Amino acid sequence: MNCPKCNSVLEKKSKFCPECGFDLTNVTFEDNIPNNSTDSSSSPSTPTTSSTTSTGTPRKTLYIIGIVIFVAFLFLLYGPGSSTKHNSTTSDFEPKTHVTEKKPPADSSDPVSLNTPFSKPGIAEITIKGTEFTDKVIPTNPSGYYSYYQADEGKVYFVINATLKNLKKEKEDMDKLVRIDAVYSDGYKYHCMLLRDRNGRLDGLYEFIDPLQPENVKIAVQLPAEAATNTLPIKVVFDFSTQKNVFTFR
């Protein structure tokens, strides 16, 4: 037993505390030996331990199940079986490259020469008969009153005499059959007039020609006057939209 005042250990029959002199005659001491039956029944440790054990087991099981599900999800997402799908999905966002087959230049066809027909199938056929430089473009066989084209000052007409045949199955405006341009001195481009030459007249605009009927035409373009005497290159390009033919005068 212990002194109530200084907590010193006392002998069982002591009347005074040997340390502090406290009077112990009126103090009643109880036995400090614990009662095992009482403590065991009143101790909360047993139910607490039981409760913790009973609730801990389901939580641990749920935790393990969660880990297994997460690992399975990662395997499905990044595993070998999903690599093809992942790559195909990613490729949808990558820029697509379109490969276009290169076509040869349109004017790389065989050269056009005098008195040799050249054509675009189903469109038109042309034969060049001759060329000339002139200040005035007149019909082949003028008679009476006729139309003509006078060159501007400092200019000269370069004229190609040719035949044009419409290969379509219906009448067609001859200007819609072919576009004709002259290239002078390797860079100067001029649009040519296409003139129908018949009955001593020259007609240009909205001239419809019958299918398969050859028509005499003049292809005329104004160039600088010195083109008639110099040696600079002159080329005439016949453009059928999907095909070009080139006549090289010099």
From TrEMBL:
The keyword Membrane applies. Residues 31-56, 86-114 are annotated as: Disordered. Residues 93-105 have a biased composition (Basic and acidic residues). InterPro entries: Immunoprotect_excell_Ig-like (IPR029050). The keyword Cell division does not apply. Keywords: Membrane, Signal, Transmembrane, Transmembrane helix. Residues 37-56 have a biased composition (Low complexity). The chain crosses the membrane at residues 61-78. This is Zinc ribbon protein. It comes from Pectinatus cerevisiiphilus.
